From TrEMBL:
GO terms for molecular function: DNA binding. The lineage of its organism: Bacteria, Bacillati, Actinomycetota, Actinomycetes, Kitasatosporales. This is Transcriptional regulator with XRE-family HTH domain. Pfam families: HTH_3, MLTR_LBD. Coiled coil: none annotated. It comes from Streptomyces murinus. PROSITE patterns: HTH_CROC1 (PS50943). CDD domains: HTH_XRE. It comes from the Bacteria.
Amino acid sequence: MTMVATEASVSTAAPDSKGVGPLLRAWRERRRISQLELALRADSSARHISFVETGRSRPSEEMVLRLAEHLDVPVRERNALLLAAGYAPRYPETPLDDPALDALRDGMERLIQGYEPYPALVVDAGYTVVAANRGITMLLDGIPEKLLHPPNAMRLTLHPEGLAPRIRNLREWRGHLVAQMERQLALHRSDQLRALYEEVTAYPVPEDAPGEEPEEPVPYFALPMRVEHEGRILSFVSSISTFNTPMDVTVAELAIETFLPADPATAKYLQTLAG
């Protein structure tokens, strides 16, 4: 398994020239919360929320953070709100290879190694793979080097020279990944993430893209990724974990994705490889 140090994958959003009010209003509307509901949650008043959003009142630093918390604003964007309100950013952005994050890196490596022989990886907010175990390496066997440096999970999966030709339910799995990116774009104002989205959605999908079902359908409990490996069809369902209450932008944007065998045949095959 390799840990890859990367630069921050999503740039901190520049503060809005009109101040913090329009930004807070945009987040409130995105969450579909009324001014009254937000006021009740934040122990304020609808009148004060209205004044903040229209620029008639400058919120305190504590109020900006309280509103951001109740609006579930991502950590990076909370820094942008603070800057727009005239305050210093609260959350640092520590490079992943910084010694201060040694314990975090070691913990993630032990976690995904312990998940073997099943695949597991760690990605940042731009889907750059920063760590991966041998289960992932097995799936990526034969992928061109140009897609591995730097490795990007979306590009590796959906590129015509990546895993895409091997995925037996490519249309369904592609739809799942594209929807996932769209949810991320709704939370992060990132030119880099937008560029990645436009790139992968432009990849051609053959009319005869793999999509056949197994001869004896299995009642999967979640949408699986069905991928061919050395003449076998392996089925996985994925789970994504993030860190609870992160206080650093880098940590907040890390996600651990694990792939669980979706049927007994896949589990048995992977255990055989491990043996």
